[in-house]
Design goal:
- The chain is mostly beta strands.
- The chain has one domain: P-loop containing nucleotide triphosphate hydrolases (Rossmann fold, 3-Layer(aba) Sandwich), CATH 3.40.50.300.
- It has two helices and eleven strands, in the order βββαββββββββα.
- A hairpin with a 3-residue loop joins strand 7 and strand 8.
- Helix 1 crosses helix 2.
- It is globular.
- The protein starts with a strand and ends in a 10-residue tail after the last helix.
- The relative contact order is 0.22.
- InterPro entries: Hpr_kin/Pase_C, P-loop_NTPase.
- Pfam families: Hpr_kinase_C (PF07475).
- One of its GO terms (molecular function) is kinase activity.
- This is Hpr(Ser) kinase/phosphatase.
């Protein structure tokens, strides 16, 4: 499948990508920066390329923003980034996120179903919640990509 752009921010933890989505100004880049401070790797900020490969959605940097992350009050700064990673979960930053859920919902992107959770963007422990969401609900690393 030909890669297509999606307005998302994306980081990878231990090789599995988290798509961070939500309305403009909600804190997607800030969450990515906080996760990067905890060891995550940048894939893309504000726009990524997605492609389906053998039933796995793969994220890669958009050429126009590769290696760049907007840091509020500091500008657009360069960071090392990964060339690609399989998407394991979609997190939506949403002020109206439910307080309690029984488990993740599902989001279909290019025919691939991914775990989906809404998180309140103003949580003081938002990076920890994102890591826990990936650990508990994220898709496993595809075996064909493990080599």
């Amino acid at each position: 499948m030909t890669p297509f752009p999606r307005q998302s921010t994306c980081v990878a933890i231990a090789g599995r990508a988290i798509l961070i989505e939500g309305p403009p100004g909600v804190g997607k880049s800030s969450l990515a920066l906080a996760l990067m401070d905890r060891g995550a790797r940048l894939i893309g900020d504000d726009s990524v390329l997605l492609a389906c490969s053998e039933g796995t959605l793969v994220a890669s940097p958009h050429p126009s923003t590769k290696g760049l992350l907007e840091v509020r009050n500091l500008g657009i700064l360069p960071f090392p980034c990964l060339d690609q990673a399989p998407v394991a979960i979609v997190l939506e930053l949403q002020p109206s996120a439910p307080r309690y859920v029984e488990g993740p919902g599902r989001s279909a992107i290019a025919g691939v179903y991914l775990p989906f959770l809404s998180l309140h963007p103003e949580s003081l422990i938002l990076p920890l919640k994102a890591e826990l969401a990936l650990a508990h609900y994220g898709l496993p690393f595809p075996e064909r990509m493990a080599s």
